[in-house]
C-alpha cells in the first residue's frame, strides 16, 4: 500500500490521507514504548502527518511525539498542534489571548523539539478574547517562521466566517486553511453549515474520531460489557467520552455494518475511515491507536474507493441515528465553564 496525500483545503500543504493523533493515548493511557512503536508503525505505513495539542496529557503528549519523531527528517513530516484549552491553573493559562497563544506556541515547540509547526490550530473558540487579537497573534507567529499554516478546531460556521472576514479587513497575510471537527458515519453535524462554507472558502477538514471512539469498529456489543483492553474498559478519561456514544440500539445498528464491510473486503474500522475520506472537503482522517497493529490496519483505509451502493447501504443501516444537527457543532466536548477538554 502506498499512502496517498491530499491538499489541505486550498493551501499548498499536503497531508497524508491518514493522520496519526495522540489524544487520550500518549502520556496518558499508553506507555511511552508503546506510543513510540505506534508512531513508528505510522511512519512505516506512509503516514507523514501527526496531530497533537498542548493540553493532551498536560503537555506530555507533545513530548512523547517529539521524542518518537527524533531522527526523522523534519521536512518529511507535518506536525500539527493546538492552543486554547487550559494548560495550568492561572487565568491566562487558557484561551486565545495574545499572551497565551505566544507562550503556548513556544512551550509546544520546546516539547516537540522543533523550530516550527506545520499547522497551528485554535483548539476551540474563545468568546472572551477579541478575535482580531487572536488573528494578529497567529499572523505574527507565521511571520516569525514558528508556524507555517493556521487552522481551527470545532468552530461553528459563524465563527469561521467572522475570522475570515476580520482577517481580510485587517489585511493579514495568513488566513485559515483548515478546520478539525469530529466527523464520522454517526456524527455529521458539520454537513449543513461548516462544510459548505469551508468548501467555498478553501478550508480543508481534518476529521477526527472517524471511528466514533472505536464504536464503529464493532467491538462493542449490545447488552455486553466493554471488552477487556478496550478504551471503554480502561482508565483515564476515555471511558467517559466513549460512554456518550454507547447504547444498545446504536450498537445493534452498528453491527449491521459488518456485512457491508465484508462485502467490500474491509474491516469495519477501514470501512468507517474510508467513508470519512469520501466526504466532500475532507483532507485527512485522524486516527488514534494504542497498539501498532491498529495503526497498520487503519492506515490501509487510505486510497479505498467506496461505490455508491456501499454508501447507500451505510445510510440505510444507520437510519435516524445519524445526527446532522448543526447546532451541536462543538457541543460534544464542551464543559460548563465554556472550555472544551477534548
TrEMBL record:
<dbReference type="InterPro" id="IPR005399">
    <property type="entry name" value="K_chnl_volt-dep_bsu_KCNAB-rel"/>
</dbReference>
<dbReference type="InterPro" id="IPR020471">
    <property type="entry name" value="AKR"/>
</dbReference>
<keyword id="KW-0521">NADP</keyword>
<comment type="similarity">
    <text>Belongs to the shaker potassium channel beta subunit family.</text>
</comment>
<dbReference type="InterPro" id="IPR023210">
    <property type="entry name" value="NADP_OxRdtase_dom"/>
</dbReference>
<dbReference type="Pfam" id="PF00248">
    <property type="entry name" value="Aldo_ket_red"/>
</dbReference>
<protein>
    <submittedName>
        <fullName>Aldo/keto reductase</fullName>
    </submittedName>
</protein>
<dbReference type="InterPro" id="IPR036812">
    <property type="entry name" value="NAD(P)_OxRdtase_dom_sf"/>
</dbReference>
<feature type="domain" description="NADP-dependent oxidoreductase">
    <location>
        <begin position="17"/>
        <end position="316"/>
    </location>
</feature>
<keyword id="KW-0560">Oxidoreductase</keyword>
Amino acid at each position: 500500500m502506498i499512502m496517498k496525500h491530499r491538499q489541505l483545503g486550498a493551501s499548498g500543504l499536503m497531508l497524508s490521507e491518514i493522520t496519526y493523533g495522540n489524544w487520550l493515548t500518549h502520556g496518558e493511557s499508553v506507555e511511552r514504548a508503546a506510543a513510540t512503536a505506534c508512531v513508528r508503525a505510522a511512519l512505516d505505513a506512509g503516514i507523514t502527518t501527526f496531530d497533537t495539542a498542548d493540553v493532551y496529557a498536560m503537555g506530555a503528549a507533545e513530548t512523547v511525539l517529539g521524542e518518537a519523531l527524533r531522527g526523522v527528517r523534519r521536512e518529511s513530516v507535518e506536525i500539527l498542534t493546538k492552543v486554547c484549552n487550559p494548560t495550568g491553573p492561572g487565568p491566562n493559562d487558557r484561551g486565545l489571548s495574545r499572551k497565551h497563544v505566544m507562550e503556548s506556541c513556544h512551550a509546544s515547540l520546546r516539547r516537540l523539539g522543533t523550530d516550527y509547526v506545520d499547522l497551528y490550530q485554535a483548539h476551540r473558540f474563545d468568546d472572551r478574547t477579541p478575535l482580531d487579537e487572536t488573528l494578529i497573534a497567529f499572523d505574527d507567529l507565521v511571520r516569525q517562521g514558528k508556524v507555517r499554516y493556521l487552522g481551527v478546531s470545532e468552530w461553528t460556521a459563524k465563527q469561521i466566517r467572522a475570522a475570515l472576514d476580520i482577517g481580510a479587513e485587517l489585511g493579514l497575510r495568513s488566513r485559515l486553511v483548515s478546520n478539525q471537527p469530529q466527523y464520522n458515519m454517526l456524527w455529521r453535524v458539520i454537513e449543513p453549515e461548516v462544510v459548505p462554507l469551508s468548501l467555498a472558502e478553501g478550508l480543508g477538514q481534518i476529521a477526527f474520531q472517524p471511528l466514533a471512539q472505536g464504536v464503529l469498529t464493532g467491538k462493542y456489543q449490545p447488552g455486553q460489557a466493554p471488552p477487556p483492553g478496550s478504551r471503554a474498559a480502561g482508565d483515564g478519561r476515555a471511558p467517559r467520552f466513549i460512554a456518550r456514544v454507547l447504547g444498545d440500539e446504536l450498537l445493534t445498528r452498528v453491527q449491521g455494518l459488518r456485512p457491508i464491510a465484508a462485502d467490500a473486503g474491509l474491516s469495519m474500522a477501514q470501512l468507517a475511515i474510508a467513508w470519512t475520506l469520501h466526504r466532500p472537503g475532507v483532507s485527512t482522517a485522524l486516527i488514534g491507536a494504542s497498539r501498532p497493529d491498529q495503526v497498520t490496519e487503519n492506515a490501509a483505509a487510505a486510497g479505498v474507493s467506496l461505490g455508491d451502493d456501499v454508501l447507500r447501504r451505510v445510510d440505510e443501516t444507520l437510519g435516524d441515528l445519524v445526527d446532522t444537527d448543526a447546532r451541536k457543532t462543538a457541543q460534544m466536548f464542551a464543559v460548563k465553564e465554556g472550555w472544551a477538554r477534548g
